[in-house]
Amino acid sequence: MGSNEVPRVLVVGYSPRMSGGVVKVTETLRQAYPGMDLHVFHHCYTPKSRAVTTYLQSLLGFMFGLYRIRKFYDVLHVIVGSSGDAVRTLPYIWLAKLAGLPLCIQHHKSADVVRDYLPGFFPVALITSTWRSVAAHVFLSEKLRTGFETVFCARDGLFVIPNAIDETWIRSDSPGSLHDRTRDVVFFGRWSWEKGVGDMQRAAEALADIAKFECYTNVQKPTVEGQCQLYPWLEEREVQSILRSAKLLILPSYSEAFPTVLLEACACGTPFVASDVAGIPDIARNSGAGLTFPAGNVEAIVRSVRQVLDDADGWQQMAENGAEWAKELKPEGIRAQWEQLYRRLSTGNHSVEQI
Questions:
Q1: Residues 110 and 209 in one domain
Q2: What gap in Å lies between CA 260 and CA 315, rounded to an integer?
Q3: What is the pLDDT, as a whole number, of residue 152?
Q4: 229-244: pLDDT as tens digits
Q5: What pLDDT, in 10s, does the model give residues 123-146?
Q6: Which CATH number fits the domain that encloses residue 33?
Q7: In which band, very low, low, confident or very high, does the pLDDT at 355 lie, cut at 50, 70 and 90?
Q8: Tens of pLDDT, residues 291-349
Q9: What is the DSSP secondary-structure string of 127-154?
Q10: Do 149 and 249 lie in a common domain?
Q11: DSSP secondary structure code for residue 167 in this structure
């Protein structure tokens, strides 16, 4: 690789046909970074038989194509978005190290969740020893990085690079005022305990005097759950429209990493209230656009929502803070941070200075 050439990178990641935040932000980075290709190791969630078959095909293709990969690419970028990924990506990491291919792991899940949800029979020590031998680990926020330090007792080669969001989300106009918004509280996510929907339902009952809750989730047709109106998933353009007309986004999850929906809400000038898990406190602190509450604390959810909706001036400041902060997440700026790391790896410079 010449000094002026962009390092060539192969991402071991998810199929673009899958849904979810990991897929979205990976595709945003790929579109912004020249010289980046994708080797899919995770093709689908269901049926399980197809998920296993396509994984094995992917692994064999990687193994038998490793000589060509080593000749063509300068860095391997491995995605870990779940406990299952921590196991599934191990053979890719071992093969890359055998071939002398520099690699980094990008963590899209908090370290404690990865550890706690590993298969019971799987030795955590195997992942720990493998990960400690990797030159660079990349986290979406400082809290996720320090969590990794604590869980896996690793100190070297840890970098923080946040996710980018597509520029179509970034608005150039004013977010308007609280009274301009036509929707009250919106939620985007799976209708599952992990997303804290039971807590949200109880909070919605306590807030029925000031807010209606609209939830866009995995239902086939509109339905009602208590004080929550449920709607099916929407296309991205429709999600943008709803966020830009909402007074508040709520995310009461028990498990997250660095939720893309909060970044998108900030870009739309929509304040948020969210549980204080994983990287969410970092988003709230850095953006100045949201409040956090202890996961599972319904009373704190109610207080947070009332605090935001009852204070028009405070809402305005949070909306403007979020819209301004989101500009720092444009793909070109995030791409530059990745390019700097890739250059270090491809030249053998594994300094742990901040990117």
A1: no
A2: 21
A3: 87
A4: 999 999 889 999 999 9
A5: 889 999 999 999 999 999 999 999
A6: 3.40.50.2000
A7: low
A8: 999 999 999 999 999 999 999 999 999 999 999 999 999 999 999 999 999 999 998 76
A9: HHHHHHTSSEEEESSHHHHHHHHHHH--
A10: no
A11: G
Is 180 within the bounds of a domain? Answer: yes
| Bridging pattern class, strands 272-275 and 213-217 | unpaired
Indicate if 311 and 232 belong to the same structural domain.
Answer: yes
Residue 75: strand pairing partners: 9
pTM score, two decimals? 0.88
- What is the rounded distance in angstroms from the CA atom of residue 124 to the CA atom of residue 75? 26
Q: Tell me what pLDDT residue 291 has.
A: 97
Report d(CA 214, CA 198) in Å as an integer: 14
| Domain assignment present for 280 | yes
Split into its structural domains, the chain has a count of 2
Name the one residue in this structure whose structure tokens are 């039971």: 198
Cis peptide before 47 (omega within 30 of 0): yes
Average pLDDT of 83-88?
94
Alpha-helix residue ranges (DSSP H) falling in 14-171: 21-32, 48-64, 66-72, 83-88, 90-98, 111-116, 124-132, 142-152
Domain span including residue 219: 167-329
157 domain residue, yes or no: yes
Alpha-carbon gap, residue 336 to 245, rounded angstroms: 32
Whether the CB-CB separation of 164 and 32 falls below 8 Å is answered with: yes
